[in-house]
TrEMBL record:
UniProt xrefs under InterPro entries: HMA_dom (IPR006121), HMA_dom_sf (IPR036163)
One function term, GO molecular function aspect: metal ion binding
Residue ranges of domain HMA in the record: 30-83
Full protein name: Metal transporter
Amino acid sequence: MLIMLAGFTVQAQEKKNKNAKYDVEVKGNCGQCKARIEKAAYSVKGVKQATWNEESQDLQLIVDETKCSVADVRAAVAKAGHDTDEVKAEDTDYNSLHSCCKYDRS
């Protein structure tokens, strides 16, 4: 009986949310940035919704954690040239942004 109960506990811990919500800070300036950030987020399989807000510098996500993680999304957005709260874009990716999209990196 104890072994069976332990098996259910392990299975419950491994369950992933198919509609997990996250807010991720993402740096950007304009409508071009919004389109690029959201496109990068949607390029990650498992992203169901991605909406970036210019004023709050916040990317609101709904992801299927059985297919991706929020870390995957942060990496994709950084590869597109935008710093996130945990992953900084490479200088070459940032420098490839249009001049109006170059945000303050301090």
